[in-house]
Amino acid sequence: MKKRYNYNKESLPRPILDGRDDFINLYYQAWELAFKNVEYIEKDGWKDILTCMPGVGIMWQWDSCIMSFITNYSNGTLSALNNLDNLYMLRRKNDGFMAMAYNLDDGEPTYGERINPPLMAWAEWEHYLISGDSSRFERVLPALEGIYNFIEKNRKRESCDLYYFEDTGSSGMDNSPVSGYGAKHGDGSDTCFVDLACQQALSALCISYICSQLGLNEKAEHYENEHARICDNINKLHYSEKAGWYFNFFTRTWKGDRVKFINSKTAATFWTLVSGVAYGERLRSVVAHMMNENEFYTKIPFATLSKDDPNYDTAGGYWLGGVWAPTNLCAIKGLCKNGYHEYAREAAIKYLDGMCKVANDVAYGSIWECYAPDAYRPATTEYNTLSRDEFVGWSGIAPITMLIENIIGLEFDAHKNQVTFHLNSREKCGIENMIFNSNLVSIVCTEYHPFKGQTTVKVEAQKPFKLKVVTKYLWYPVEIDVPKGQSVFKI
User: Fold this and answer.
1) What's the domain range around 207?
2) Is 209 in the same domain as 358?
3) Average pLDDT value for residue range 402-413
4) Strand ranges in 18-159 using DSSP code E only, listed in sequence order
5) Do residues 380 and 360 make contact, with C-beta atoms less than 8 angstroms apart?
6) What is the pTM for the complete model shown?
7) How many CA atoms lie within 13 A of 302 on its CB side?
8) What is the pLDDT of residues 312-329, one digit of tens each?
9) I want to staple 314 with a disulfide (CB 3.0 to 4.6 A). Which of 78, 374, 405, 426 is the partner?
């Protein structure tokens, strides 16, 4: 008899954010749905999985990766890494191929040779930063290198050294207008996809971190160089100086001169932030477009297609503007990585506030697959029906991950044994009963009056760790060595 995953509110971290009971309530509703949506697989060698759509009989790759960013905060009671372990088991060993989805009944690829956003290395590294558990790295590294090398050998254009998905469905953004025509032969319609290039760069970066952790210094240097090479190629060909944006481009008639951009601004470009591709004036330009209310910064942010595109659908139309958890995770992680913490917090609040309004509307009353950009309602699909409800799964990203990381403002780094508290709220905020780096910690700001010098942070820990407190009112962060036990710090 397999273990059953039962929802127990008391075993989870307890977020604190005075004045936003709606955020806290949706946090627990998301966890309840996550435990409800476990798929139990009675087959030797398989692990039970967390799924967005129980009963469908399919395990998707990028859904699985994104869901691990949620279960990192489960205190070990639920893990989407089970999904990744199944994917590693099912991968093709001779060439590293990992399908975008697999059938649960026979373990065969659901959609043939299609790949999916390769986010496993990112997911593994982010899990380590919270858990401090590096024991997986040696075992999973062959799979991470395998899919990386498969993409290098099989999804890269010889003409320009850049990458393609087989079609938009493979990219995950099913009906996004980013590929010139229907790809009947699974060749990406002669398009180079900026999102896959950035995801490959992000994979190289995270694999380099994992190799360093394992003491594989030559490999780490190799993947650092790979990251630099891919970033350089993306900046040479995917960026339009005129538009200040990164686009897919069409390679059918390309002969080494100017590329022909596919001029739809989409969420694919969000990946340039989190992967380290965009920098300097290009970074500032991308962020300006993202935060523009006439482009991506919609009533519920972020639209996945710019509002000035003729294909934009105010109701969402799936990826014709719909607001999705994976691209929002990418956008907000990318903003934080590049120092735009206030933008990230503002966007996370606006996103989660929209989700709460939808959940509290008796007409909808749930957590949905995606959201309309210009109204407090679920997004429509490409067939003009409502998207799926009870979608946790990855739509738990805002109620759980963004609430803790961006709205409350806690950043975890087990590699440094450090928690950074980005203090922004004037209300009591923090987290209790959180397992970080094998250490049970509580970190709560009980009063925040920076102009009066009366900011107080209460901390409890089973083991020592480092706490860095950051606010816009301090010239420099306050760094504290937190001892075992209970402590009160005046800042």
Assistant:
1) 119-409
2) yes
3) 98
4) 38-39, 49-50, 58-60, 101-103
5) no
6) 0.96
7) 34
8) 999 999 999 999 999 999
9) 374
